[in-house]
């Protein structure tokens, strides 16, 4: 390809990418998300130093408690891949880390440090709804699709030599989403919570508290879930627009449940 036409081609594809990146653009089938998730789940289980999973045995009560919240969220009519994805939860026994994450295909990981930090069940339901939303919206494979297209463009523009394709797999491991995907996940989480009896803005209370934390110990949650800006206001506005009526916080039960971790 001539240099000039390469530039035109590049411009064309970048415009196309710009248009498609806002849409529900995905090169992969949902079964790919599930396979990726299965692989990541096995890897996490092997890396017990980085991810010390809280054993199920001896912690049945807390696992049951978290699973019941997840079941409530999955029972809303908002989940596109309710049957296709695994929707399993694992607790990571690390009382100092404030984080939660989800793999493609619906394996949800919650740090005990986050459970300890939260103050009521609606806040935990908010975090779980947010993680479920990331998986159900297929953010990881959509992110991969965008990068793959961009890599292909660069590959063509560079005359066929690029290491970018090799980086695609590595970048997934961090599971860091774009601010746009964070917005989408927040919105979907509110839609989900709004159809339950939970106070739909519990997650905003959590974000408010997180943002007040000393920036030197920036919570891990904000590293893997970058703040899209005015997040708290947007969540509250969304809940208002949807006229969410729930006010269930189950605070007393939550505080009792937290003591099971001690
Ligand atoms: Zn997120």
How would a crystallographer describe the biggest sheet? 3 strands, mixed
What portion of the residues fall into strands of 2 or more residues? Answer: under 5%
Order of helices and strands: HHHEEEHHHHHHHHH
Query: How large is the radius of gyration?
Result: 20 Å
The 3D shape can be described as globular
Number of helices: 12
Structure description:
- It contains twelve helices and three strands, in the order αααβββααααααααα.
- The termini are far apart.
- It has a three-stranded mixed sheet with strand order 1-3-2, with helices on both faces.
- The protein has one domain.
- A hairpin with a 4-residue loop joins strand 2 and strand 3 (107-111).
- By secondary structure, it is mostly helical.
- Helix 1 packs antiparallel against helix 6, helix 5 crosses helix 9 (202-211) and helix 6 runs antiparallel to helix 7.
- It binds zinc ion.
- Zinc ion binds next to helix 5 and helix 8.
Write the SSE topology.
Elements: H1 3-20, H2 30-46, H3 60-74, E1 88-92, E2 100-102, E3 107-111, H4 112-117, H5 121-136, H6 139-157, H7 164-173, H8 179-194, H9 202-211, H10 220-224, H11 231-241, H12 251-259
Parallel strand pairs: 1-3
Antiparallel strand pairs: 2-3
Helix pairs in contact: 1-6, 5-8, 5-9, 6-7, 8-11, 9-11
The chain binds zinc ion (ZN).
The site of zinc ion (ZN) has 6 residues, from helix 5 and helix 8.
